[in-house]
Each structure stands twice: as C-alpha cells, then as structure tokens.
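Task 17 of the worksheet. Students: predict the tertiary structure of the chain below and write it out as structure tokens. Keep your answer in the requested format; marks are given for formatting as well as content.
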Amino acid sequence: MKLFPKKSYVGVDLGSFRIKVVQVEAEAGGGRVIRAAGCPTPPNTIRDGLVLDVAAVASALKDVLKEGRITATNATVAAAGGTVFVRPVAFPKVPEAAIRKSIRLEATRYIPGTAVDSYIECEILGDLEDNRMNVLIVAASKEVVESRMAVCEAAGLTVEVVDLEAFAMYRSLIEVDPTVSVQEETIALVDIGASMTSVSVIHQGVFVVNRTVPHGGRLLTDALKAYFKLEDADAEAGKSQLDARDLLSDHVVKENPPLRVVQPHLDDLVREVRRSLNYFQSQQLEGTPGARKVNRIVLAGGGAKLLGLAEYMEKKLGLPIACAGIYAAKQFSALGETADSGLDMAVAAGLAIHGSIRRAA
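Model answer:
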C-alpha cells in the first residue's frame, strides 16, 4: 500500500483562532504539500470544538479554499474539544462481535457525555492477563462532529472521513517519520492551540491518555493585552518578541515586565502537562507489557511557536522536549520556499494523509 496515493484529499483543521487546509500529493520517499492555506476563524464561532455559527465558518472556509486554489473536493475533518474521549479499557476476553454489540452500554461508564449523544468506536489492542483484553474506546460528541461536517459540506466539500485531532497530529509528526520506532517509545504529544491544549500519551503506538485543558496561546495574548492595555495585534506582536528561555534567569525576569506577566500562564501549562504524565503513570492497565515511562515530549500547534518554549518546559519537566512541524523531519516537502516549520499545519496534514490512506486501503 502506498502511503500517499496519487489522488489527494484536503485536510480541514477548524480551530477557534485559525482555519487551516492542506492538500497532500504523492512524492518519492514521502509526500508533497501541493496546497496549504489558512485564515482567521470568524470571532466567537467555535468554542470547545463546537461550531456555533456554521454559516460564518463555512463562508470563511469557502474563501480560503478558493484563495489557496485547493483542487480536492473530498475532505477529512476532525473532532476536537473536551467531549472527545480516548482511553484503553480492560474487558473480559470475548469475541469482537460481542464487544461491538455491547460497547455503547459499556462506554457510558467512561465517556463524558451520554451514549445517545456520542459517536462511539472501539478497537481491540491485544490480550492482557487474567483472561482479559485491552480495548481502545473512542468517543466524540455528535453535536461537535456534525457541526464540523456541516461546515465542510456547506463549503462544497464531501466529508469522507472524520478523525480526531490528536490522531491526525500523531500521524503527520510521528507515524510517518521513518526515524521513529513507535513500538519502542512512549511519546507525549502536546498540541498547543489558541484556546485549548491537548495532551496525549502514546505508549508503543497506542493512545493511552488524551486530555484537553482550557489553556492555550490566547491566554498569553490576553494577559499582555490587559496588563499593558494593548490592541490584539500589538499584544500578539509583543508576544512574538518574548523568549521563554529568559524565564530561567531570575535577573532577566525582574527586568522584563512582559515575561513576568506571561510566566504564571506558562507555569500553569507546565503543571497541566505534568498532571497528564502523572495520570499516565497511575492509569496504565495492569498486565500491559512494556515500560511505563514517557521517553520524550513533542510540542506542536500554533502556541508552540513561542520562542524558547521547548527549552523552558524541558527544564521544568526534566524530559527531552522538541517542537515539531510537518516539514521538520522531511516527511513532507514544502510548497515552495518557506522558513516556517509547519508547526500549526500538523493536524490538517495528518487529516489529508488519513483520507489518502483510507482510499488506498
């Protein structure tokens, strides 16, 4: 099976701050981004993954597809937000048909919403001790999924695949990287968006933790805006001049008021990531083979563009941390010359790949 068949799909990433679209085409040794575009999301139209104004977001998406000269008409979109649930659960060993028949009832013990209001899927991952098996339960709010599909369809796209943002990012940054041995590592993937941060732990190729916390890059912008009484554009420009590595020096922090303003919010983010890692340590299923320690952390998303953030978090958490964009490991060739590593395009690229893989399978 070719990873990138000739026909390409458009991956549509509907963020609360920006809309991003990517179209990928086959190329020797990987994939080529033939189209990539983005635009600001209309204000107050997406909250916690839910599209509140389908018409406004669809209009913006239609414009960005046109401006980006996207030729694909088949789309892959992702669910996101606090209603998305991913967790491995121990079940008695029974035939797969029996699991699928009872999964909606069983899932009500774990998912944040009700089974009636959620799309629920499962995958058997393997056997555990004591005649049990490891089953991955995935659930997402129907309201969130359907609002995102409605946006794409109103913009003239046919949605063939609905994925999860965390899965898409893992696919584009980790899974297609030939230098990574996914079966031997435990990786924490931290996607820092504008209003939310998703923390996922992938143990030997399996998602074992997926948390969404209401903490994103916009908090830093708002803090600078409020303290210094700035406009949005000036606060964003000021944030782009900061270097989080300077927070490691008490002397520099005292001499830099903007750093003092953002430090509490960065430390809150560090605490949430640490909490997720601790949860992973405590919630690993008994009988699961392999190590229970995170080997490294990968940062991505628009919020990860803050200069020096990886180094600051690495010092605080005591783990190797790197920022990764879709162009960093050369799995993708960029559309023309670009100095951008593609940090905020990972979800859209992973969605485009998923559409292609599904067609080729």
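Marker's comment: The chain has a mean pLDDT of 86. The chain has one domain: 10-219+264-360.
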